[in-house]
Amino acid sequence: MAKILLIEDDKAVADSLSFVLQRKNHEITHATNTISAKHELGSKSFDCAFIDVWLGEEDGLEFLADNGELFSETPFIVISGGGPGRTLENVTARADAYGAVRMLFKPFEDTELLDALSLALESGKG
Amino acid sequence: MQPAQIIQNYALQILAAQTASVIVLITFLTLDTPLLWSIVSALAAGIIVLTLCLIQVRGKRQPSAWHDVTQSELLSAIRDAQIGYTILNAAGEILYAPQSVNGLLGLPEGDDLTGRVWFEIDHEKKSHKDARRQIWNEIIEGSSPWSGIIRWVGENKDKRYFDCTVCPVAKDRMILVAIDRSDRIRASRQLQDREKLNNYILNNIPVSITLHDMNRKIIYSNNYIPERIGQSASDIIGKDPGQILHNSTVGVLSDMYAQMLRTKKPVEGRTLSITEGKMAGTHWLLFMYPVFKKGKMEQTLVVSLDRTERVRLAQEKEAFSKKLFETQKIEAVNKFAGGLAHELSNLLHPAGVYARALKAEPDLPDREKYLGHINTAVLKAGEILRRTLSISRFDEDAPRPVDLSAFMKDLVAYANDIAPQGLNYKILYPGHPLSVLADDTGLRQVMMNLMNNASDSQGNSGDIILTLGKGGTPPQTTGMTPISAGPFAWIDVTDTGEGMDDNIRTQIFEPFFTTKRKGEGTGLGLPVVQGIVTRWGGIVTVDTSLGKGSTFRVWIPLSQSQPQKGKKDT
Questions:
Q1: Which residue in chain A has the smallest CA separation from B508?
Q2: Fewer Cβ in 10 A, N or C end of chain B?
Q3: What CATH number does the domain containing B533 carry?
Q4: Interface residue ranges in chain A relative to chain B, Cβ cutoff 8 Å
Q5: A3-125 under CATH 3.40.50.1360, yes or no
Q6: Strand ranges for B328-422 from DSSP E
């Protein structure tokens, strides 16, 4: 069982991700914006974090760029469904630069999600 | 006759009588006639002479006779009338010319003209003098009177014009009478020059001017239209406009003509686009004026302004605006595609998750709930797609004149019927009719959208004010320019909600941008509104500040024509 922080503003997406992860007995903490995410990261420790790029008026990648230290102990996976100026190449390049374990583009298979989580948990152990 | 002359005449008559008496007395005394007889005879002779003189003078002073006008009086009158005369021989040499001729010809007083050839005297060019000589010879040979205008050039090249008549009175005697017509001829020349100038102006201004009789036949035309159809102005005189242009153009002219006949007033500013015949592709602005003579309408003046170039420029401008609009649209499409991808992926991902789960475990607990999630996602995606279509739809009703006040009255009555308790929409009318170019369905969608937004921002309570007006130009706050140059009517939708900061204000017309809570808005409402209004040539702008509410203004091009009665929104 892993402790996972899910940073996602869209309730339906968050629910569906939680649905898959909870069925694998992982513990999910859901943050809908960066302020809440900061708070959670400051008060608890997580084995992995999932971060959406388009967070309403906020940008998940900007959040990573400005708060890299918060993720020094927590491996993270970036999720994106695209958006204006947010092409696959562009988002992948930036996510790599910030040290994301993997990049997932919605919609994706559950196995992709779980594989990415395994990879993150392994990298976290190191 | 002067009194001094009369006295002088009488004195002469008395002197003549005395002389007669003295002669008779001396004669009789010489003949040794007795003295008494001699004196009596002398007196008798004096009385006879005096009586004869008196009889003669009285005869001359008959008031009905004209012979008492002296020759000098006559000539003086002729001189005063600026009439000169000379007597010439066949060679044209002056035999006699009164002094007054010098004044008339501008020659120094005292110059003796006798013996000079008349047509050599002035400073006219040699070629002209030669021509005069030729004419003179022809007159002499023909021995018949001649009349004509002779130009006389002075020492300073100043010119005088004489109306001349040459009368042969004998084989070698001609009388030349010259009347000074310089003033009249100069005036006539000026008139001709002015007429030439007027014609030059009329034929070179980019306007067609035609004058028609009451049968509408052309009685005058400047060159503007004839040149364009490869004819001369005289070719179209007497013709009907329909014969020259094309029958399809006559309708507009006939309407104008009928109105002018009815009102007896000018009919101004009618447009005419010619689509057939030699003038096809030209556009005109027509003015028709009645011409009255002694209070009766006798002619029609038609002034036609060629607007072809202007229309072409306007069409080019419109094409350019459309291109600019398309460019803006491509940019918008890029943004839109990103937004659409984001929205749909957020819907598709959960649907995929639950579908896979149900496939793996058909009897999953909460099966119904997950199926419901899938269904909701599909319906939401459908809604986004429908709105996407309404942003880009081009098959909507063509804009037509809409009576804005009447339309808004109906719409607000409907909106108030379905509004939550405590929410009221109120209209401030402009006090004059407003006819705009829009389509009912689109306008309803635009207004309902803005009114709902205003209602949301006020927590669905209080008054939402809708103000109708016209005039002004849209502010450049949206980064877009309306296709139409105006004039515009506008509808303001004013709320007293939270208002927006600059950051939000600049994004509200972008697709998928929303300030509403997740699940409440698609972020497509305002882009759809903007899309509809820009298709009419208008634009939506917003005036807002944080904490003070917002006013959305829908700018719609004013229509030149009135809405058709009875055709209401359905």
A1: A57
A2: C
A3: 3.30.565.10
A4: 9-13, 15-17, 19-20, 23, 54, 56, 81-87, 105-110
A5: no
A6: 400-403
